Fold this protein.
Amino acid sequence: MPRPHTFPSADHDHRHCLDEILTAAERLCRQRRARLTPRRRRVLEIVAESHAAIGAYDIIDRLAADGGRPAPITVYRALDFLMSQGLVHRLASLNAYVSCPQAGAEHGAQFLICHDCGAIGELADPGVEARIAEAAAHVGFEVAMPLVEIAGTCAECRRAAT
Amino acid sequence: MPRPHTFPSADHDHRHCLDEILTAAERLCRQRRARLTPRRRRVLEIVAESHAAIGAYDIIDRLAADGGRPAPITVYRALDFLMSQGLVHRLASLNAYVSCPQAGAEHGAQFLICHDCGAIGELADPGVEARIAEAAAHVGFEVAMPLVEIAGTCAECRRAAT
DNA sequence: GTTGACATGTTATACTGTAACAGAATATCT
DNA sequence: AGATATTCTGTTACAGTATAACATGTCAAC
Ligand SMILES: [Zn+2]
Ligand SMILES: [Zn+2]
Ligand SMILES: [Zn+2]
Ligand SMILES: [Zn+2]
């Protein structure tokens, strides 16, 4: 069961957090017989380095620092794989990618985007989806994939602003 | 007051519909002392030619057919103006633009995107926004701009599919 | 070990959107 | 009306995001 609301706290131990994300990814891919190759693992590691979203070309820059700049398609292919496994999400409003804090758990995608610190949270609120489906049904529309990306200010940044 | 849910019916008289959109735009811009220049009016006309979304470069192609292909920036500037007046919306999930069926009425933007026929509807459901704001508040997040783009199947296309 | 499926490399290209500056049109004020 | 300020448009160049097509390499199963 996904927790209904998550937002990364500013003071959490992200070393540990990152380690958990990678470990969970390895476990999930082993279970599914999906191949988390070194390249894909490295891309996930880069995306998960922070809870902010990162653009594909910034990922390329990070990989270039490892030695040998890969072509864009290489990174997009890795991202496609990671998204197909639910390990990474794409944020259409930012053209950027973020690691999923609840990889493996089936969940709709409702993102909270702090425009101050860049951190990304996820809501998995059944109520939101239900309300959307209900409103859509009033015009006979059947929802397939709701996309919800909410820009605003996170708790930390609101505290900092006062 | 905006109607809470709208979706363009497949059989409506779109000649008339388009005419209303343009007339309303002229009235609104006159009231606001905003300058709906021929260029901008023509771009709105092209965007409103159907209730599907259209890409910026497709708009350029349509303008080129009028004679004299404008530079991309020209169209983006017209779109920026039209969006600032609430006459056109941008759909981040499609990188495309759609005319607003309720221009002038203040309303949040929740879009219904039929992936079969391409038609775009709008919800202006206060319940959806409220539910989102409430869920966000649970993690201390303050919503500034919720973006909701819902892919699915419209009533017409569901009927046609059976 | 061969086969077949999947993953990566290489090159080129398509699509989407902006920066910077010059010139034209429109509004405003005397 | 004429000078001035503002806004709009044109022109050129470029930045940022994503994919096509085809060759090569790698891995697992048979
Ligand atoms: Zn973390
Ligand atoms: Zn923040
Ligand atoms: Zn219409
Ligand atoms: Zn449809």
Summary: The CA atoms of residues 105 and 129 of chain B lie 17 Å apart.
